[in-house]
Amino acid sequence: MKSWSLPARIGFPFLLLAIALFAVFPFYYAIVSSLKAPTELFTVSYAPSLNFSNYASVFAEQPFGRNILNSVVVAVVVVALSLGLGVTAAFALGRVQFRGRAALLLTILGVSMFPQVAVLSGMFELIRALGIYNSLPGLVLANLILTLPFTVWVLTTFMRELPKELEEAAYVDGATPLIVVRRVFLPIMGPALVTTGLLAFIAAWNEFLFALTFTLSNEMRTVPVAIALITGGSQYELPWGNIMAASVIVTVPLIVLVLIFQRKIVSGLTAGAVKG
Known about the structure:
single chain, MetI-like fold, 2 domains, 0% strand
């Protein structure tokens, strides 16, 4: 491979810097705006101040702490159910031969392609019939429609790439399919589980339409809906400082999770990309 020319070596760091600024600057400016007093919001300033009144106001004027707890509970339960059901379904679809397997996989993929609004009325009738409207179980059930098909599809693709010799050796030793999944496959599926789990968490954490439709009281709403319903006296008097503060609060946990699991995420995304 030819070495890079001098202009390329000089220009590449500047390109990376430009990309980083383009990606990070909106979040940085949201932090700066969240720290401004209401009278300073419409003045251009890139240096953050130390005014935390907007953060205090977010929790004082509405049950935002409860909204955060609702989002955490819904997202964690959705991830746990998606991974638990996804692993078992992926084992059946990826390792067991049965008639109609390809059609079932295509059906699962097709379900994930439906827009939320297309299934909104049906989900509303189902949740109302089950008596879980305006409750966290209702939001968990609705979010599973979004996360479970994706989780099953990704884990099935990963499960197919696992060496068949490991499974056969476990069966020779008297293992059952459940033991094979739990003790043989799960330990080596860590990157894939982290990747799909984090993507499912982000989807449940940011979900808006179902959370808006299937909740009625402020105490049951999740953070995206709570932020959207932060209002002032009129459309020209929106408390932008409070909105920016709430946005920063709900974005920080996602950034922390990505930074913690970034290596496993990269391993999970690239698993199976190179085969010997």
